[in-house]
Description:
This protein has helices spanning about 15-20, 40-70, 70-90. It is flat. The chain has 2 domains: about 5-35, no CATH class; about 40-90. With about 110 residues, the chain is mainly alpha-helical. It is built from 3 helices and no strands. The mean pLDDT is about 75.
Amino acid sequence: MKIPRNEPCPCGSGVKYKKCHLGKPLPGEETDGDATMGQDVQSALADRRVQGAIVVGILVSVGAGIWQGAYTGIVVGAACLLGIIAWASFRNPPPPNPDAGDPAALNFGRQD
Length: 112
């Protein structure tokens, strides 16, 4: 059952639900790791992972530039950047479309 935001919190604190337990489990409810984690928290964690990958990519490219030369550092940096972009793009693909039909069928506009 969904609790309205402006109702008193069911925990008995006397505070509105939005200020007390909104987004948190109520006493007596079991927590289930990622299942109870809010979308904003998951989004923040994903952003931190992307930021961490960017920092690691910069450090690796600077290290390669110092060790092997500026051109190698630029190439390694570009490769890291492409890898990070690919990872960020494909880490959470959309769900498949259930009404897609047969993707291998070529009907050339015929109605069956």
